[in-house]
Amino acid sequence: MILIADSGSTKTNWCLLNTITGDHTLVQTAGINPYYQDEAAILSTLEKEYDTPLRNFKSLHFYGAGCANPEASSIVEKALTQFFNSPKIEVASDLMGAAHALCGHGEGIACILGTGSNSCHYNGHTIVHNVSPLGFILGDEGSGAALGKKLLSDVLKNQLPEALTKTFFDKYAITPAEVLDSIYRKPFPNRFAAQFTQFVSEHIKEPAIAKIVTEAFSEFFSRNVMQYRSATSLPVHFTGSIAWHFKEQLTEAAKRFNLKVGHISKDPMPGLIQYYSK
């Protein structure tokens, strides 16, 4: 029996996997991110929310946001070591988790399109090239945060049809001042912006909204994926809620760059289960 975890700032999905039979059990806790939590806080989360009694595993594989550098990943590893009993504990970035889930043991381009965005060239064993996503302010092209930010900008700058703008304010009952306060003064502006992708999805048939999505994906490809030398000769895979809900627009945008779209999954866990079952 092994334990796999896919973690973001909001939630962590855990999978207890029997690698022989393929039988598995899913557990969910609050998110774990070493940029926002120290070792004690992570341990406290596990003690309160990980309510499955089984804690002995042959190996534990944790993929998480904020775990790209050794210093941050060691915080998570220490907490996991205290809580679980496993002779082998591996902590890696959520991007590595996406690569394992999407590419398996083959070469490809792995992309995350959720609240934020990221991508890499994976050679079947390790990440050989990663274009830094740069986060909400300078990057995260094609992400939920980017889509929401552009929608909010178009609403406040009167770039959408009047009726559509009215529909937006009727739906969310929010003032321009509250939007600006949430973006510039409150914590997690990326999450705030990303919540409006629901409106984008509901009105995707509107040309002005469709334009927001196609331009965002085109920016993601031109500023990220196309920097990988083998991008046009390798399958380009995607995971994340934005990739999943806007896969039609994503596929169309990829064609314009002569990219071959591979797998598109809502989250990495099914792919990780397959990866470790083999």
Question: How would you concisely characterize the structure shown here?
Answer:
The protein has 278 residues and is of the alpha/beta class.
SSE topology sketch:
Elements: E1 2-7, E2 11-17, E3 24-30, H1 39-49, E4 59-64, H2 70-83, E5 89-93, H3 94-103, E6 108-113, E7 117-122, E8 127-129, H4 135-138, H5 144-156, H6 162-172, H7 176-184, H8 189-194, H9 197-202, H10 207-223, E9 235-239, H11 241-245, H12 247-256, E10 260-265, H13 269-277
Parallel strand pairs: 1-4, 4-5, 6-9, 9-10
Antiparallel strand pairs: 1-2, 2-3, 6-7, 7-8
Relevant terms:
alpha/beta
If you had to describe this structure to a student in words, what would you say it looks like?
The protein is an alpha/beta fold. Helices cover 45% and strands 21% of the residues. The chain is built from 13 helices and 10 strands. It has a 5-stranded mixed sheet, with helices on both faces. The protein has a 5-stranded mixed sheet with strand order 8-7-6-9-10, with helices on both faces. Helix 1 packs parallel to helix 2, helix 3 crosses helix 13 and helix 5 crosses helix 10. The relative contact order is 0.14. The model has no long low-confidence stretch (mean pLDDT 92).
